[in-house]
Model the fold of this input.
Amino acid sequence: MRAACAALGGVIAGFASLAVAELAAAVVGPEAGPVAAVGGAVIDRTPPALKDFAVRNFGTNDKLVLELGILAILALFAVAVGLLTLRHRIAGSAAVLVFGAVGATAAVGRPEGRVSDALPSVVGALAGAGVLYLLSGRLVAPRPAGERATGGFDRRGFVVAAGVAAVASAGAGLLGRRLTSAVQAGAEASRCHLKLPAPASPAPAVPAGAELDVRGLSPFVTPNKDFYRVDTALVVPRVDAGEWRLRIHGKGVTRPVTLGFQDLLRRKAVERDITLTCVSNEVGGPYVGNARWLGVRLADLLREAGVRPPSEGGRADQLVARSVDGMTIGTPVEDVMDGRDALLAFGMNGEPLPFEHGFPVRMVVPGLYGYVSACKWIKDIELTTFDAYDAYWVKRSWSRRAPIKTQARIDTPRPFASPKAGTVAVAGVAWAQHRGITRVEVRVDEGPWHPARLAAPAGRDIWRQWVWEWPATPGSHTLEVRATDGTGAVQTARRAGTVPNGATGRHSVVVDVT
Done:
């Protein structure tokens, strides 16, 4: 019984530590909380192959899985230190401080870390150590001086103390959440009250026939709620648009620029349909989506700052974008300034950017994987060279340059589906941003290739739907698809993983026709 109570005391102390840390983080910043800080440190130090495995298997829930894993480890640690107090009360209580040291080190070590970021973890650990020391004191039965200790203990005192500690911790945690919400209210209000400007350069009208009417096929425009999200932020930044600033500086910048959000809105707004793809997208994977973006041309801002691309004698060949959470993304200057619709976007599908997708401003560069182009929550652009600086993902074994590879995906029928014999619509999407798709072919059981019917082209930066009417016969069959891009290059059959610059191979599905 004493051991069970000691373990429970450790768990309550851990809960108290987290709750008080969350309360302190409401003042310092939610990203400085111990779970967020430790989680961020784990992400930063995870090998690319393991990180890719997490994205592939857990999808957009990878961060939730990480947080649950951290909490599970913390719970086991709390049980261990609780049991330790049965033999060494002071040592067991002091062991909670290890948790605080880990959290404080992780918080200060973030790219944007400050000394004050250690405060939530330190305060939380002290609170947890104090709670465990008090609870462990109730596990020893009071006895007259000189008498030996017995196996009994102050059960009633422990229950009361544990209840009070749990209630007080819950109150601290709730207060912390409310304070965090109050601090973030300004950011929420700035987005809620934002009225997007009318585009001076509207997106071209979507041509008739660009969206095929096939059940199970991905829509031409991906709704914001369904758009994939892959990033390293455990705590989604909430930036007040009124306080947002963007600085452009560095090599080859003759006129450094600092812009506020209203400065951006007053500029010529450009609206474009652009398909984005994550480099972590496996062949046939879900991390690709098409949206209508609204923003300003990044190339125009760079030229106003005096920047010239390398082809015109410019000194910088890399643009390093920095996010408010410390992420760095390196993009070829030549690609940004070669005439493509590279945007600093503030609108997505007719509404302000969702916080999860970078509000108030993010980069969108067609033709490049997101890790070298799509900086969310952007705050700084530095012009430099690839020789002088490696951005976040490059330091982790990914390529410096990463144009999107030609890919096609079968959306319907789904893997292991059981369609009925007869005409079956095999349909999906294909993409080769900034080159376009000119042909899609499907084959069955490694037989001859059959041309699919393509939807009307909407632009070379946009994915293209396709469908093939398959005369299906009973039995198990393998469907395979390949695409040809605007340069005439046919999608390769060679299988390669996502590291270092995107997966290759052809998507196939197995179905059982009845």
